[in-house]
TrEMBL record:
Keyword Isomerase appears in the UniProt entry: yes
Record bears the keyword Isomerase: yes
Protein name as annotated: Histidine phosphatase family protein
Taxonomic source organism: Cellulomonas dongxiuzhuiae
Pfam families per UniProt: His_Phos_1
Xref: InterPro entries: His_Pase_superF_clade-1 (IPR013078), His_PPase_superfam (IPR029033), PG/BPGM_mutase_AS (IPR001345), PGM_Phosphatase (IPR050275)
UniProt keywords, alphabetically: Glycolysis, Isomerase
Gene3D superfamilies: Phosphoglycerate mutase-like
Length: 204
């Protein structure tokens, strides 16, 4: 499907202020925290000795900032791709779970009944974003990269893994991607290897 791709490295952006506040960001943004900057450096270190030949990122600032740290370490330019943006959270973007339930009573329960097809009010569902994730991989492959690093988000990252590993959607949506680790996928086999462990701040 992507003949030029041999291995793909997937990273999630570092921790943000809204992550700490348990706010769902979607395509909105908030700055990296001190821990988030440590996690970006950790990701850069994890791929420093890997054969990464290109760096792509989501257009969201938190992903771009994380990717730039990696690009600087690797001596590679960073290319933003709109297709790597996080799922659009619509009117729920920026809210905590209690705020979502207050503003949209019953929606979270409906999400639990069909996580794949449920759509954020005014935003996207996982089902909506599946073609976008495939298009992102096609654009990366068309660049000629063989071992690209993609810095994006947890939700769109699940769909990237759905395509790359050729796993069913339920398996993909059950996965998680901790910040500060890198997933390496061998494209020919779909084999996934986890590089690193979640980073933590040094004692003060």
């Amino acid at each position: 499907m992507w003949p030029s791709l041999q291995s793909v490295y997937l990273a999630r952006h570092g921790q943000t202020e809204w992550n700490v506040q348990h706010r769902w960001q979607g395509q909105l943004d908030s700055p990296l925290t001190d821990l988030g900057r440590v996690q970006a450096q950790t990701v850069a270190s994890l791929v420093a000795d890997e054969p990464v030949d290109a760096v792509f990122c989501s257009p969201q600032g938190r992903a771009a900032a994380t990717a730039q740290v990696c690009g600087d370490r690797l001596g590679l330019p960073v290319t933003p791709l709109d297709e790597l943006a996080e799922l659009h959270h619509g009117s729920m973007a920026g809210m905590t779970l209690p705020e979502m339930e207050h503003a949209f009573p019953g929606e979270l329960a409906r999400r639990g009944e069909d996580k794949y097809r449920w759509q954020f009010p005014g935003g996207e569902s996982y089902e909506d974003a599946v073609p976008r994730a495939a298009q992102a991989l096609a654009r990366v492959a068309s660049s000629g990269a063989q071992h690209p690093l993609l810095v994006s988000h947890e939700m769109i990252g699940r769909l990237l893994l759905h395509h790359l590993r050729r796993v069913d959607i339920a398996t993909a949506l059950a996965g998680s991607h901790p910040q500060g680790v890198v997933y390496r996928v061998q494209v020919a086999t779909g084999t996934l290897t986890t590089l690193g462990e979640p980073a933590s701040l040094p004692p003060r």
